[in-house]
Amino acid sequence: MNPREKQDAEFDKIAEAMIRRIERAVSTFDPDELEVELSGDVLNLTTGSGQKIVINRHRAARQIWMAALRRAWHFDPDTSGQLWKTGDAELVTQLEQVLSTLFSRTVKLSMGGS
Protein backbone atom coordinates (compact mmCIF):
# COMPACT_ATOMS: atom_id res chain seq x y z
CA MET A 1 0.00 0.00 0.00
CA ASN A 2 1.49 3.34 -1.01
CA PRO A 3 1.55 6.26 1.47
CA ARG A 4 -1.47 7.98 -0.15
CA GLU A 5 -3.56 4.80 0.06
CA LYS A 6 -2.53 4.39 3.70
CA GLN A 7 -3.53 7.99 4.49
CA ASP A 8 -6.85 7.51 2.67
CA ALA A 9 -7.55 4.31 4.62
CA GLU A 10 -6.73 6.02 7.93
CA PHE A 11 -8.95 8.98 7.06
CA ASP A 12 -11.80 6.69 5.97
CA LYS A 13 -11.58 4.81 9.28
CA ILE A 14 -11.80 7.89 11.52
CA ALA A 15 -14.37 9.69 9.36
CA GLU A 16 -16.63 6.63 9.18
CA ALA A 17 -16.37 6.16 12.94
CA MET A 18 -17.44 9.78 13.55
CA ILE A 19 -20.32 9.64 11.10
CA ARG A 20 -21.55 6.39 12.66
CA ARG A 21 -21.33 7.95 16.14
CA ILE A 22 -23.46 10.85 14.90
CA GLU A 23 -25.90 8.41 13.27
CA ARG A 24 -26.31 6.51 16.56
CA ALA A 25 -26.80 9.76 18.50
CA VAL A 26 -29.48 11.17 16.19
CA SER A 27 -31.23 7.81 15.81
CA THR A 28 -32.66 8.36 19.30
CA PHE A 29 -35.04 11.02 17.93
CA ASP A 30 -38.62 10.08 17.13
CA PRO A 31 -38.66 9.19 13.41
CA ASP A 32 -41.57 11.61 12.92
CA GLU A 33 -39.30 14.38 14.21
CA LEU A 34 -36.05 13.37 12.48
CA GLU A 35 -35.56 10.80 9.74
CA VAL A 36 -32.02 9.40 9.65
CA GLU A 37 -30.58 7.74 6.55
CA LEU A 38 -26.97 6.64 6.06
CA SER A 39 -26.13 5.79 2.46
CA GLY A 40 -22.48 5.21 1.61
CA ASP A 41 -20.49 8.21 2.80
CA VAL A 42 -23.54 10.44 3.28
CA LEU A 43 -25.70 10.85 6.40
CA ASN A 44 -29.00 12.55 5.55
CA LEU A 45 -31.14 13.97 8.34
CA THR A 46 -34.60 15.23 7.48
CA THR A 47 -36.85 16.92 10.01
CA GLY A 48 -40.59 16.36 10.11
CA SER A 49 -40.98 19.80 8.53
CA GLY A 50 -38.72 18.84 5.61
CA GLN A 51 -35.55 20.68 6.63
CA LYS A 52 -32.39 18.79 5.64
CA ILE A 53 -28.97 18.33 7.17
CA VAL A 54 -26.36 16.53 5.09
CA ILE A 55 -23.14 15.22 6.64
CA ASN A 56 -20.55 13.45 4.52
CA ARG A 57 -16.91 12.58 4.43
CA HIS A 58 -14.80 14.14 1.70
CA ARG A 59 -11.71 12.02 1.20
CA ALA A 60 -9.91 14.35 -1.23
CA ALA A 61 -10.02 17.20 1.29
CA ARG A 62 -9.76 14.80 4.30
CA GLN A 63 -12.71 16.56 5.92
CA ILE A 64 -16.24 15.92 7.08
CA TRP A 65 -18.63 18.33 5.44
CA MET A 66 -21.98 19.42 6.85
CA ALA A 67 -24.66 21.47 5.09
CA ALA A 68 -27.74 22.88 6.83
CA LEU A 69 -29.68 26.11 7.15
CA ARG A 70 -28.22 27.41 3.87
CA ARG A 71 -24.68 27.08 5.25
CA ALA A 72 -21.82 24.66 4.85
CA TRP A 73 -18.97 23.72 7.17
CA HIS A 74 -15.79 21.77 6.40
CA PHE A 75 -14.40 20.07 9.51
CA ASP A 76 -10.83 18.81 9.92
CA PRO A 77 -10.00 15.99 12.35
CA ASP A 78 -7.71 16.36 15.33
CA THR A 79 -4.94 13.78 15.71
CA SER A 80 -7.25 11.36 17.57
CA GLY A 81 -10.07 11.64 15.03
CA GLN A 82 -12.50 12.27 17.88
CA LEU A 83 -12.82 16.04 17.41
CA TRP A 84 -13.58 17.65 14.06
CA LYS A 85 -13.16 21.44 13.85
CA THR A 86 -13.29 24.32 11.42
CA GLY A 87 -12.13 27.65 12.76
CA ASP A 88 -13.86 27.95 16.13
CA ALA A 89 -16.72 25.55 15.28
CA GLU A 90 -16.73 21.87 16.28
CA LEU A 91 -18.81 19.32 14.34
CA VAL A 92 -20.98 17.88 17.12
CA THR A 93 -21.52 21.25 18.78
CA GLN A 94 -22.45 22.82 15.44
CA LEU A 95 -24.87 19.96 14.70
CA GLU A 96 -26.45 20.45 18.14
CA GLN A 97 -26.87 24.17 17.39
CA VAL A 98 -28.47 23.43 14.00
CA LEU A 99 -30.86 20.88 15.54
CA SER A 100 -31.67 23.30 18.39
CA THR A 101 -32.55 25.97 15.82
CA LEU A 102 -34.67 23.60 13.75
CA PHE A 103 -36.53 22.15 16.76
CA SER A 104 -36.79 25.43 18.74
CA ARG A 105 -35.39 23.75 21.85
CA THR A 106 -31.97 22.89 23.24
CA VAL A 107 -30.58 19.70 21.75
CA LYS A 108 -27.64 17.88 23.36
CA LEU A 109 -26.46 14.72 21.60
CA SER A 110 -25.19 11.76 23.57
CA MET A 111 -22.04 10.83 21.74
CA GLY A 112 -20.75 7.38 22.67
CA GLY A 113 -17.21 6.29 21.84
CA SER A 114 -16.18 5.08 18.39
Overview of the molecule:
This protein is α+β, with helices and mostly antiparallel strands. The protein has one domain (3-103): Metal Transport, Frataxin, Chain A, CATH 3.30.920. Helix content is 32%, strand content 32%. The protein contains two helices and seven strands; from the N terminus they run H-E-E-E-E-E-E-E-H. It has helices at residues 3-26, 91-103, and strands at 34-39, 42-47, 52-58, 63-68, 71-77, 84-86, 89-90. Strands 1-2-3-4-5-6-7 form a seven-stranded antiparallel sheet, covered by helices on one side. A hairpin with a 2-residue loop joins strand 1 (34-39) and strand 2. The longest helix has 24 residues, at 3-26. The chain is elongated, with a radius of gyration of 14 Å. The two termini are 25 Å apart. The model has no long low-confidence stretch (mean pLDDT 94).
Q: What is the percentage of strand-forming residues?
A: 25-35%
Mean pLDDT: 94
| Tally of individual helices | 2
The outline comes out as elongated
> What is the C-level CATH assignment?
Alpha Beta
- Strands ordered across the widest β-sheet: 1-2-3-4-5-6-7
Number of strands: 7
| Topology-level CATH name | Metal Transport, Frataxin, Chain A
Please tell me the CATH architecture by its name: 2-Layer Sandwich
Oligomeric form: single chain
Main sheet?
7 strands, antiparallel
